[in-house]
Each structure stands twice: as structure tokens, then as C-alpha cells.
Amino acid sequence: MYYFLLHLSFCDIVFTTNIAPTILHNILLDVGKMSLKHCIAQFYVNGASTIAECYILTLMSYDRYLAICKPLHYTSTMNLDVCLRLVGASWLSGFVVTLSTSIMLFDRDFCGPKVIDHFMCELTPLLKLSCSDTFSLEVVVFILSIPIIVMPFVFIVVTYINIFMTVLKIPSTFGMQKTFSTCSSHLTSVSTYYGTLTLIYVVPRRRHLLNISKALHLLYTVVTPLFNPIIYSLRNKDIRKAIEMLFYNKQYNQ
Fold first, then answer.
1. Which of these, 127, 63, 67, lies nearest to 101 by C-alpha position?
2. By CB distance 3.0 to 4.6 Å, which of 20, 55, 153, 154 could disulfide with 90?
3. What secondary structure letter does DSSP report for 223?
4. Overall pTM > 0.85
């Protein structure tokens, strides 16, 4: 669990550091300019980290499923070598899939007003500025969203149905509450993250819904990475105990 949390945090760090410094630079210096290469590079890093986080959240649900539904097989199934392979495949998928989309985007012609109606280089406002036919690219993005967003989300739902069925068989109420509490943090992150991604990339786009799209992007680029450390820290007994010990040692040394 902590190994997956490490990579989840790294995804959030990559995502926010790729966007936030550029936004702050444009606001503070009132510049608001970015080259096309820089813009597509930002889109590439955003896409890669987004896909990696989708798969890591899926791996975390599978990890919870093994720990609760098949506890006797957990150690042999989810060993360090398997974790390394699964996380490596998640990052590799993110960089490879986004590379193909970025190449298709870079081959498009951009003309007319070169102003992005967005706070980041995202696919929808970039396609709006393109003079080329963007239908094929939109179809590719929609098709790729199925194995990246829809299928992992369905997998998470199925795993949690099995988890809930297993938890309901626990005879003691305390045991049920304790088991549910280990899944609540992950469920909160999944609901926020996958909910916004589905609305942005799976639901068909409409030009007049661009402001709503910007609000949704703000939700999963700023709010979710901000609350993930809080969600997983305050609801985790081991991390709370480590924080308490840290403050206790500081007070003791003073």
C-alpha cells in the first residue's frame, strides 16, 4: 500500500509542478505567452502523469481486494517484484500512449488567434485553434479513454463490490468498520479523480461547455492533488502516529 502511495504522490507532484509554475509565472509577470513546443510538452507530461495515476489507483484497489478478500494469498501474490512490474507498466503506458497523441497534435496546423481559452495547455482548447481536421484525433482520444478511464473504473467498481460482499460476512461490527475504514481514503480519491476525468474525456464535448470543463480541470489538477496527502495521512493510523511522535520529539528536545 505504501509503495503505491509513494507513486501516487509522485504523480501528483509531477502533475502540479508541470502546471503551477507556468501559471504563477504568467500571473506574476503578466506574460501569458508560451511556445507551441512548450505547450505540447506540458500536455505530454500532463497526459502521462494522468494515465499513470489512473492505473495506480486501479492497482491500489486490486491491492485492497487481495488484502481483504484473499488475505492468505496476499504476500505471495503482491510481492515487491509484482509491485515493481505493475507500477513500471503504469508509467510506461502513460508515456507511450500520450506520446502518440502528442505527435498527432504536433502535426496539426495552427492558425488564426493563438490564444488558449484555458489556464493550461489542454486538448480541447488546442483543437479549437487548429486549422486542420481534428475529427480523427478526437476519435483516437475517445477510443483511448476507454482502456485508460472506463475499463479501470469498471475494474475498481467490481473489486469493491467483492470487497463489500466479503466485509458484510464479517461477524463483528468493529471488524466491519475497521475494514471499511481502510478503503474509505481510496474511494474518496477515486470518486473525485475518475468522476472529473469521465466528464472531461469520455462525455462528448460541446463548445459552450468550455467554462465547465475549465472548472473540472481545476478540480483534478489542483484540488485532488491537494487533498490526497490529507486524505491518506489523517485517515491512516500509522502516519498519524508518526506525526504525533515527530511533534512529541520536537517538544521534548526543546
1. 127
2. 55
3. I
4. no
